[in-house]
Amino acid sequence: MAHHGKITQFAVSVMTHSIFLVFLTDEYKKVLRVYDMVLGHLMTSVQKTILVVEDEPSIRETLQQILELDGYLVISAAHGKEALEKLQNGSRPNLILLDLMMPVMNGWEFMDHLKLDPALSKIPIVILSAAGSNQNKGHAVAVLRKPTDIDLLIQTIEQNC
Q1: Which residues are CB-contacts of 124 (< 8 A; sequence separation ≥ 6)?
Q2: Residue 56: which residues within 8 A CB-CB, separation 6 or more?
Q3: Among residues 47, 98, 96, which one has the least CA distance to residue 68?
Q4: pTM of this prediction exceeds 0.85
Q5: Deepest of 22, 117, 140, 148, by most Cβ within 10 A of its Cβ?
Q6: Cβ neighbours of residue 22 under 8 Å, at least 6 residues apart?
Q7: From edge to edge, which strands make up the β-sheet containing 49-53?
């Protein structure tokens, strides 16, 4: 922040984006609110999105909280059919975190549907399931067994997202 008499110049730079704002010094709180809003918008534009597909609400909510605390945007679905509908409606996550044993449409059926769509089939999938094993991972990039170590989960997501 640079002070020039009664005028304050304020700059925000994130990656290659720069925004310059000019405000009166007595409006400092407004500057901070605008700064938070602009920075939040710019960070959202570079934030990675994870689609969590998990039928157990407590696990789904816990995963969402952990991932959001780690800086990811999270979309969630209770089963494969709901996840597929979100993808068909335009959601494009950077990675899918997928349970296998779910009602309505299980994880294997979900992966079979993704294979049919060239755009969706490119989204990396990490299986997180008590039923998971590397032998039946389909086209998933990794398989983690429940319960899993949170650090291993985050590391696996970072490597594949």
Answers
A1: 94, 95, 96, 140, 141, 160, 161
A2: 99
A3: 47
A4: no
A5: 140
A6: 7, 8, 9, 10
A7: 73-77, 49-53, 95-98, 125-129, 142-145
